[in-house]
Design goal:
Elements lengths: L6 H32 L3 H17 L1 H11 L1 H19 L5 H28 L6 H30 L1 H22 L13 H8 L2 H30 L5 H29 L2 H18 L5 H27 L9 H13 L1 H16 L1 H16 L13
Helix pairs in contact: 1-5, 1-6, 1-7, 1-9, 2-5, 2-13, 2-14, 3-4, 3-5, 3-13, 4-5, 4-7, 5-6, 5-13, 6-7, 6-10, 6-12, 9-10, 9-11, 9-12, 9-13, 9-14, 9-15, 10-12, 11-12, 11-15, 12-13, 14-15
Length: about 400
């Protein structure tokens, strides 16, 4: 690809991102089997997902600070290894509480990997192709997500959910080793120190805070859909595991298409505000469409959510990286900060959704989720946005 400056590093980062996504989504795909073993229901899936997102949210900013001090490569490798070992250990769990605790550590490791990965992938694409680079990185995530939702649903039926998770963790460890070999060493300034005044400039930046709140709404919508759609199809519409996995994977497949395309559009326009609002608006209608309660409506809903999620995350994270409020070493922290608060939507939203399902049913829950997403993404309208700094 024309915009690439270091193909080996890009390939290893994208492979790690893909396996990272497998281990993000495979639990949702195989939850029906886990629920059977531990006598859980949709509420268990909500709390399991919530624990995962607490880990993701709490360690975003610490991960950015660690990367500023010790380098993004080292931080990303630590992260991928922590999350992969936690996934592997989940395969040996004998109690549902153990799985909940281990999903917290999976989230923690993924928090340490993500923002450094964004900064590294943008670095290894040529100037003015950074949005395409982040879009490519996100496309790798969606490829892995599709494999996790569809492939692991089939794999777990064949080998059991325990062994399927052990295999996912082992693959993640291998990608960490590949990153050690393929990604160039961090170039660190010997005189650089993390300073509280610099941290405050980033944490108090109004545009970064607005991006964080906007992605909170996007995460609410995508998390609900990708977490529950497979279980919803199996449990409520009596769809087979293979077909449910196919429908769940449609979100990832559509995101593969939208992420690099919108990344290129952002490279040309730098209009994050408009791109984010349109993505969120269309997503909210897509989520509500699942309330019709048919296989085809669930498929359409999943495709729309995937297209909009791929677009919004690419724009949001690239726009965050483009805001250089202080030293270049803080690029990772800027991305981490934008990614932090929105991760808590991944904690609250699944729990709230599962409770609404238990009380009022799936149709009402999908409608509420759509309106909820629309209300959250409208926050971007309060700002005129701003162009990326040179």
């Amino acid at each position: 690809m024309k915009g690439m400056a270091n193909r080996r590093a890009i390939a290893s980062l994208c492979l790690a991102r893909a396996v990272y996504a497998v281990n993000w989504y495979n639990v949702a795909a195989i939850f029906a089997l886990i629920a059977l073993d531990f006598k859980e229901n949709v509420g268990g899936l909500g709390f399991l997902t919530g624990s995962f997102y607490i880990g993701l949210g709490l360690f975003q900013v610490p991960g950015g600070i660690i990367a500023a001090r010790y380098g993004p490569k080292r931080t990303a490798i630590y992260g991928i290894l922590v999350d992969s070992f936690a996934v592997l250990l989940t395969g040996f769990a004998t109690d549902f509480v153990e799985i909940i605790l281990l999903r917290f550590f999976v989230g923690m490791g993924m928090a340490l990997f993500f923002a450094p990965g964004v900064v590294l992938i943008a670095k290894y694409f040529r100037k003015n192709s950074e949005g395409l680079g982040v879009g490519t990185f996100n496309s790798a995530f969606y490829v892995g997500g599709a494999i996790g939702l569809f492939g692991w649903a089939i794999l777990a039926e064949i080998v059991g959910w325990h062994l399927s998770l052990i295999m996912g963790g082992a693959l993640g460890i291998l990608t960490g080793v590949l990153m050690i070999v393929s990604v160039p060493k961090d170039t660190l300034r010997g005189d650089f120190l993390v300073k509280w005044p610099d941290l405050r400039k980033i944490l108090e930046d109004k545009w970064l805070l607005l991006l964080t709140l906007e992605l909170f709404g996007i995460t609410a919508g995508t998390t609900i859909t990708t977490t529950f759609i497979v279980y919803y199809l199996e449990n409520s519409l009596n769809v087979g595991a293979a077909m449910a996995g196919v429908v769940g994977g449609l979100a990832m497949i559509s995101s593969i298409i939208s992420a690099p395309l919108i990344g290129r559009a952002y490279d040309r326009t730098k209009d994050a505000r408009r791109l984010l609002f349109l993505s969120g608006l269309i997503m909210s209608f897509g989520i509500s469409f699942a309330s019709i309660g048919r296989l085809w409506s669930a498929a359409v809903s999943t495709i729309v959510v995937g297209l909009c999620g791929g677009a919004a995350y690419t724009v949001g994270f690239t726009a965050a990286r483009d805001v250089h409020t202080v030293a270049k070493e803080y690029e990772t922290l800027a991305v981490s900060w934008v990614n932090s608060i929105q991760m808590f939507a991944g904690f609250f939203s699944p729990v709230a959704f599962s409770l609404i399902v238990l009380r009022f049913g799936y149709s009402a829950a999908w409608l509420v989720a759509g309106f909820y997403t629309l209300a959250l993404i409208s926050i971007i309208l309060v700002s005129k946005g701003r162009k990326a700094n040179a």
